[in-house]
Amino acid sequence: MTTTTAAPVAAGPVAPTRTARARSRRNLWSALLFLSPWIVGFLVFTLWPVLYSAYLSLTDYDVINDPRFIGLENYRDMAADPKIALALTNTVVYTVLAVPLHVVGALGLALLLERAGRSSGFFRTAFFLPKMTPPVAVGVLVLLLFNGQNGLVNEALGAVGVQGPYWTTDQAWIKPALVLMSMWTIGSTVIILLAALRQVPSELYDAARVDGAGFWRRTFAVTVPMISGTLFFVVVVNTIAAFQMFTEAYTAFFGSGNTTYANEAALFYVIYLFQQGFENLNMGYASAMAWLLFVIILAVTLVQLAVSKRVVYYEGDQK
Amino acid sequence: MSTRRVGLCGTVAAAGVLALAACASGSGEPTQAEVTYGSDAAMSGELTVMGFGTGDDVAQVRYDRATEELGDDVDVSLVEGDLDIQAFLSAVAAGDPPDLVYANRDQIGTFASRGAILPLTDCIAAEDVDTGQFREAASGQVTFDGEVYALPEFNQVQVTMADSSLLSAAGLGIEAVNGSDWDAVTQATSALVRRDGGALSVIGFDSKLPEFFPLWAKSNGADLLSDDARTAQLDSPEALEALELAVAVYDAQGGFPAVKAFRDSADFFGEGNQFATHTLGAMPMENWYVNVLNEVSPDATLAFDTFRTREGEPLAFATGSAWAIPAGSPNAAAACRFAATMVEQDSWLAAAQARADARAESGQVFTGLLTGNADADEEIRSTLVEPSGSPVWDQAVEAVYEANENTFSLPANPADAEFKAAWQDGVNRVLNGQQEPAEALAQAQEEAQEALDDAWAEWDERSDG
Fold first, then answer.
1. ipTM of this model?
2. Phi and psi, residue B298, nearest 5°
3. What is A177-190 written as a DSSP string?
4. What is the C-alpha to C-alpha distance for residues A305 and A232, in angstroms, rounded to an integer?
């Protein structure tokens, strides 16, 4: 076994010996060697495509022929394209509806699960299982469950005397249907929040009880502040996912079952991006659209980060 | 982030983009392969076919003949399933295309304009393909800017299908719903529709919008695209009138969302289909559905006729598939021979014989085969299609073949996806109640023309330079 000589703290920094420097270099190379699969993968499959798409966004590129540099023309065209505004509006509306519902619903279920006792494991699995459903299958399920004529949702509403809307064919109800369907995959958020709930010190609840706080008071005065870091995380992650909504809506309203009735109410931004890139073969324009989405998501996330500094509590945070 | 760090990041990003701009060369021009086609040439090597599968007897029989024609030295492999455009174009761009693709005919113009597929003039000459046998509507879809880019096959056409018991109960005949008399269509819709409480329980007439808008428009004398495929004609008075009629049919039944939801809830391919359950009065529908109905509900009370113009003439909108050779195809000579064999008259006859035998064995009616090849169609009908003993199914066969003789199509153009999206979105906006028909078609016209202008400008520039 080799021995190392640690410099005494009181003696202050001293120049490392030649042996220590050599070992440090060896360690660096070893680390890089072990990291190299990831580094190569990142450079080839992430960084290069990202940078290349930035270049393509400045070109007229139809996938087959050479990209032709056109400067900022794609971005100017986007400003004049009414479908960009439509797709962005659809996406923002969906995000604003889906994310709060998703997070509040998941928190409610997590609070219930925390009280489930021994059966908690079963329910955790049960809630998470739908998350395993492929998104394409969820898209098909939307059409089946929300069919206005004989879908299960309207059957259930009919049982209590409510005539349900034409969720999948009436443009006013398509986004609400997709928002409700997004709850199908709530399980992963439930599990994350449940883990956070279990980290809340029980003495805080005991103290709150002694002070006479009821369930709601404890929830809002103890639970939510203590898990606010995790709540912030799931809000950010779900917001980004909502902005990238694609598979479920595409399968339901633009896929093989609905090739001709592509309702504009379901034209989310990434769907329009896909159409431009792979159906209309405007890959340069699609690249520009991708960069706009990146900037929007970045801006939204930065705003969320700024807000989080005021409302999120991290244990051990000295500020 | 400090100003210095921002500056550094900006410099790195700019340098990266500039470096990419400097070194990126894209895919390069697609290789216009120097191909030696020849009917006497011996074939060898590999042949990769994308977008085609041998899932039924008609495909299998012709595939067997085509591979036999190529000889033992050619190893044929199939990439089955519908043609994946993304995968195909990426392969072409990467210089590693398949040898042959099987595409929808309406994709050919776009592929040709991008240089993704080869013109087939030399292939056709070398393999003695008689293009005069191809139906005009099919040829039009594979001929771009005067050159043939693909060999067409199959024809899908529309005929009028109706529930004869519902028609009889309403005192109507098939002529009330075959499109020849628009007032009669509207009146029949009202006579046939039924509601149970507030919900629709029988669709009177389904005009099959948005997909059949070109059919309704043409039946009123409107061509949605000019013959040279350069000018959109979506907002003509005739097209507008057709859209108003087809939408009014839905409005009379509670609106399109209600009808569409009801349509979607049906067991379309099963024994509980809309005709078997008497929940649909009539609709124009593609000919393949005759076979479905014959298989799953042979005893349903049905009536068939062609779809007709306002003058009473039969009319159908032809669609189908085609064989195209990608630019840079490593084995274009074998691809050409394979495609030529697949569409030749003898191959169709052999395939039709196999289908007729299989139908006879299972006690079902052979309703014919629409090949896109007029001579093959005629021979198949005259030699293999026999009276079924059922006036209903004989009527269906008669209607299908009559429709096949009276087809039209939209000419190949370089912006097919955008053109189609423009008119479909326009029709959908009307069905959704977002716009009035005139406003929707005016917007669709503008969008379609802009897409066509851009695409043709690029093609003109490329073909000139």
1. 0.81
2. -65, -20
3. HHHHHHGGGTHHHH
4. 9
CA dist A144 and A137 (Å) reads: 11
Residue B152, C-beta contacts closer than 8 angstroms, at least 6 positions apart? B105, B134, B135, B138, B139, B141, B142, B320, B321, B322, B343, B372
For chain B, the 3-state helix, strand and coil shares in percent, each to the nearest 5, are 50, 15, 35
Q: Which of A103-112, A304-313, B162-171 has the lowest mean pLDDT?
A: A304-313
Instruction: Please give the Cα distance from B117 to B101 (Å, whole number).
Output: 9
Output phi, psi for A40, to 5 deg. -60, -45
Nearest to B242 by CA among B192, B184, B310: B310
Sheet strands side by side (includes B199-205): B194-196, B199-205, B280-286, B158-163, B302-306
Residue A279 to residue B257, Cβ atoms within 8 A: no
Average pLDDT of chain A, as a whole number: 89
Of A53, A146, A260, A273, which to mutate for an interface test with B (greatest number of B Cβ within 10 Å)?
Answer: A260
Q: Would you tell me the crossing angle of helices B374-384 and B345-361 to the nearest 10 degrees?
A: 30
> Quick one: pLDDT at residue A13?
55
Percentage of residues in chain B having pLDDT higher than 90: 77
Q: How many CB atoms lie within 10 A of CB B203?
A: 26
Euclidean distance between CA atoms B175 and B204, whole angstroms: 15
Residues of chain A contacting residue B421, judged by C-beta atoms under 8 Å apart = 262, 275, 279-280
Give the whole-angstrom CA distance, residue B454 versus residue B461. Answer: 11
Among A291, A235, A294, smallest CA distance to A104 is for A235
Give SS3 for A72: coil
Residue B85: alpha-carbon gap to chain centroid = 15
Q: Let me know how long chain A is.
A: 319
- How many angstroms separate the CA atoms of A123 and B238, rounded? 61
Taking residues B236-249, report their average pLDDT: 95
Q: Which pLDDT tens digit goes with each residue over A244-303?
A: 999 999 998 887 655 556 578 899 999 999 999 988 889 999 999 999 999 999 999 999
Q: Where are the beta strands (DSSP E) in B186-276?
A: 194-196, 199-205
Could you tell me the two tokens for B175? 């002529």
**B299-327: pLDDT as tens digits:** 999 999 999 999 999 999 999 999 999 99
Tokens coding A130? 């739908």
Query: What single-letter amino acid sits at B57?
Result: D
Contact across the interface for B29 and A58, Cβ inside 8 Å? no
What residues in chain A have their Cβ under 8 A from chain B's Cβ atoms?
Answer: 51-52, 54-55, 58, 61-67, 69, 143, 147-151, 163, 166, 168-171, 259-265, 275, 278-281
Annotate A96-143 with DSSP letters as a single string: HHHHHHHHHHHHHHHHHHHT-GGGHHHHHHHHHGGGGS-HHHHHHHHH
Compute the radius of gyration of chain B from its Cα atoms: 25
- Cβ count near B451 (within 10 Å): 23
Residue A68's SS3 state is: strand
Q: For residue B3, what pLDDT is reported?
A: 40
CB atoms closer than 10 angstroms to residue A232: 19
Pairing of strands B100-104, B45-50: parallel
What does the DSSP 8-state code read for residue B132?
G
The B74-79 sheet, strands edge to edge: B74-79, B45-50, B100-104, B319-324, B151-156
Q: Are B306 and B403 in contact (CB under 8 A)?
A: yes
- Give the CA-trace dihedral at A214, A220, A223, A229, to 10 degrees: 180
Of B245, B237, B207, B209, which is closest to residue B221 (Cα–Cα)?
B237
